[in-house]
Amino acid sequence: MPEVARSVATTPHSGIREMADLARQVPDVVRLEVGDPDFVTPDHIIEAAAAAAKAGYTGYPPSAGYPRLRELIAEKVTRRNHLATSPDQVVVTTGGGGGLFTSFLALLNPGDEVLVSDPVWPGYPAQIHLQNAVLKRFPLDRRRGFALDPDAIERSITPRTKVVVINSPCNPTGAVYGVDELKRVVEIAERHDLWVISDECYDEIILEGETVSLATLGGRDRIITVFTFSKTYAMTGWRIGYVVTSPEMAAIIGKLQEPVVASASSLSQKGAEAALLGPQAVVGQMVDSYRERRDLAMELLDGEGIGYVRPRGAFYLMVDTSSAGDSLQFARRLLLEEHVATVPGSAFGPGGEGMVRVSLASSIKTLDVGLRALASCLRRTASLSR
Ligand code: PLP
User: Fold this and answer.
1) How far is the CA of 323 from the centre of ligand 1 (A)?
2) Based on CB atoms within 10 Å of each CB, which residue in 92, 165, 282, 384 is the most buried?
3) What is the mean pLDDT of the chain?
4) Domain 6-40+281-385: which CATH number of 3.90.1300.10, 3.90.1150.10, 3.40.50.360, 3.40.190.10
């Protein structure tokens, strides 16, 4: 085969996918590694998409999305995220991932630096690498539940820094950043003339307290906020999300979709319209389940004397496995000996070392079995390494 692009050969592989691929080879595996809700998409959304297919919504939609959906999204963001938004500030994308990719495409020249937290969702490092840009990690405050430390961001800025990525509620840490820290991020971005990509894909998965949309705190012309239907409505396979930004940047992002995806899928867009128009209680019910699972998981870990970071948003739990040494080796051992799949903290960056990520998007029974097995594997491994 002739040579492929250098950036492809050197793109970091997602540690989440790696564990998922390994898990597929293990019989009767207990899957706590994936961030895919175990709920199916609510019926009324599926029915609306099916009806739209029958009614002929099978052609290309406009590149930025159907006008009606953009209108509904603008209303949602204005009302629920408290961010006054008009439809020309919205672009419908192929999931949150597609919104992030097109945003990086719009902003980055080769060699530009992008600041992300450590630990961080591994999608960003791969996407940044594919733009031939340079990833730099700033530490989170581990002792305060991986809280955001704006000074650490400011210390990482160089003349080459172009973008800061903020993810709250955060995957993998479950942290929800406070207003004061977020305000300082906006001030820093203004002072150093940076773009901010605010990944708010878990905006509605709030387990306690509340979340603040970054762009409500100022600096709107330099912020691109990324949202998705994937997590909120259990629609991961529909590949539908959206970005909210200035009308000028929205026009650029819409234009960049044309040569690649053309637009998000027509049927997914019709499903998304139904999601926004239909009963919202379905979201509350799913969030209640994630909270119930989190509480049970924390109780079980407390009983076993195992540390963790209390998640306030998203649906992940970082469990302290440092007594067993290297997190990748421990996660592999847990998979091979106990048939329980998790993600080693190191997959999210050096800042995640000493922990594994457990997904709460699995049934209570699965969590119970998986966490008990984790506890016994941890005891065994820790006593060996002593
Ligand atoms: N951003 C974060 C922080 C995520 O965890 C994910 C998916 O897990 C995404 C973006 C991508 O979302 P989507 O599935 O809508 O592309």
Assistant:
1) 30
2) 92
3) 96
4) 3.90.1150.10
